[in-house]
Specification:
Elements: H1 2-15, E1 23-30, E2 44-50, E3 53-58, H2 61-67, E4 73-80, H3 97-101, H4 106-109, E5 118-123, E6 138-143, H5 157-166, E7 183-188, H6 197-209, E8 214-217, E9 221-222, H7 228-243, E10 247-251, E11 261-262, E12 269-275, E13 293-296, E14 301-303, E15 311-313, H8 323-340, H9 346-356, H10 376-387, E16 389-394, E17 399-404, E18 409-417, E19 420-426, E20 435-437, H11 440-446, E21 458-460, E22 463-465
Parallel strand pairs: 5-7, 5-8, 6-7, 8-10, 10-12, 12-13
Antiparallel strand pairs: 1-3, 1-4, 2-3, 9-11, 14-15, 16-17, 17-18, 18-19, 20-22, 21-22
Helix pairs in contact: 5-8, 6-7, 8-10, 9-10
């Protein structure tokens, strides 16, 4: 009998000979009434659960069998890793206090990362080749100053903004971005603190007419500096964007007064103010009716210009604070919204912001905080409730999965090889979920909805019709 038992233990040892990437060593329990007759060494540690229930930890199977005879062991199992939810593994994430305050990682946990959404950043360019901003995401580059595609960032502002929006998240490098699935259209119109109004008009117009879904403008010009004609011209571009359901996000300004700045003050643009670590209104953030919501904007951390591994980790107040840096937080939220509903317009987006933000200052709307501090966790929950489904593409495993936001049900996963459908794993599809919105990016990527044609599933317009159980 002992020989048979030892054979089983030997097989178990073979199975557990190497701990997986999701575990660190082993836990084991002794049989009842087995006394440990010698002292524990550094390789084995006791973990008392109750007075009469003790389990032990060990680094390896050999350590276990050096500690006690196999006959004494009731069970062995891996000492698996426990994950701290809503905490990415980017090493500088702890520096991003603002992301933690607004629960930014909750969107990733829900499967939202802005995948396939085209975000225009009209700014000072970008640090192309930065280790934390995938160059594949940069799908368009225009230098309005030189008429070239050289968008090298010479001041850092545009790179900082872009990192807040879409730095790679959970890649073990640098900082975390809120919507790291977006594509960037980079418009360079600054090489210093100021630029000509004509460059803004050119970049703004091009981004509106070239298929962008969301436009970030961490910039502005005082209302008093613009003529009636200039304001009308800017408003006409905003109106065109509204007709195309493009979401426009702009900084309200850092004048420490009530000055109105454009484009934030225009109808159809979501203006963003700033709060600091105490969640009080930032002293520099303008106070007026252009403030729709506020977001963290002091001592922010993000990607930086220069070397490919450069970061600005809130080393100084001046270079990392401003409504310029609260604005891309809301831009990233707009990208999340567009992923959930490609046709969302600015009125729907602003209503979602208003409904999910945390009221600060005077009850209700006020000109310091707008409708309050954005909360990505609540915002994501509203998206889940209203729009229901997400499309997630795993390029590494060549698969596309459709998930239901509301209860996190994975409905099915389709596997591809060389863009050809290979197999489909159908999960439990809840009764009533008969239509699944299909991300248009997939149609563009795979050329036709026919890649989703199999068995009971029939492409129908831009949707899949699925037999309910």
């Amino acid at each position: 009998m002992r020989k048979f038992f030892c054979a089983i233990i030997f097989a178990a040892a073979m199975l557990f000979s190497v701990s997986s990437a999701y575990a660190d060593g082993y836990l084991f329990k002794l049989k009842d009434n087995i006394a440990v007759s010698y002292s524990l060494d550094n390789s084995v540690k006791a973990i008392p659960l109750t007075d009469d229930n003790i389990i032990y930890s060990a680094d390896s199977i050999d350590d276990i069998y050096n500690f006690t005879d196999s006959d004494n062991i009731e069970t062995i199992f891996e000492n698996v890793k426990v994950e701290l939810f809503d905490m990415p593994n980017d090493p500088y994430y702890p520096n991003q206090w603002g992301f933690q305050v607004i629960n930014s990682y909750s969107a990733h946990s829900a499967g939202l990362n802005g995948y396939g959404v085209n975000v225009a950043v009209i700014d000072s360019g970008i640090n192309y080749g930065h280790e934390d901003i995938d160059t594949v995401k940069i799908t368009k580059q225009i230098n309005m100053l030189s008429g070239t595609s050289d968008v090298t960032d010479e001041v850092g502002h545009g790179t900082f903004v872009s990192g807040i929006i879409g730095a790679d998240t959970d890649n073990g490098i640098g900082v975390s971005g809120i919507a790291d699935g977006v594509n960037f259209s980079v418009y360079k119109i600054f090489t210093g603190k100021t630029t000509d109004f004509s460059y803004l008009l050119s970049a703004f117009s091009d981004s509106v007419n070239s298929g962008c879904d969301v436009i970030n403008m961490s910039l502005g010009v005082s209302a008093s500096a613009l003529s009636y004609e200039a304001k009308a011209t800017l408003q006409s571009i905003v109106d065109t964007a509204a007709q195309k359901n493009i979401l426009l996000i702009s900084a309200v300004g850092n004048n420490s007064n009530s000055t109105l700045n454009y484009p934030a003050a225009l109808e159809g643009v979501t203006g963003v103010g700033s709060v600091g670590k105490t969640l009080e209104h930032s002293s520099f953030s303008n106070t007026n009716e252009s403030v729709f919501v506020c977001a963290p904007g002091e001592y922010m951390s993000s990607t930086w210009y220069g070397e490919s591994n450069s970061y600005n980790l809130a080393a100084s107040y001046g270079s990392s604070s401003g409504t310029s840096f609260s604005t891309p937080i809301v831009t990233a939220m707009a990208a999340l919204a567009k992923q959930a509903n490609k046709d969302m317009n600015y009125i729907e987006f602003q209503e979602l912001l208003k409904s999910s933000s945390t009221d600060l200052g005077t009850a209700g709307y006020d000109t310091e905080y707008g409708w309050g501090l954005v909360n990505i966790e609540k915002f994501t929950q509203l998206l889940k409730e209203r729009y229901g489904f997400s499309v997630n593409i795993d390029n590494e495993n060549s698969s596309v999965s459709i998930n239901n936001f509301y209860d996190n049900t994975k409905m099915y996963t389709a596997f591809y090889k060389d863009d050809v459908l290979q197999s489909v794993v159908t999960e439990d599809i809840p009764i009533g979920y008969s239509q699944i919105p299909l991300n248009t990016q997939i149609l563009e990527e795979y050329d036709s909805a026919s890649v989703f044609f199999w068995n009971d599933m029939i492409p129908l317009s831009n949707k899949l019709l699925v037999n309910s159980k």
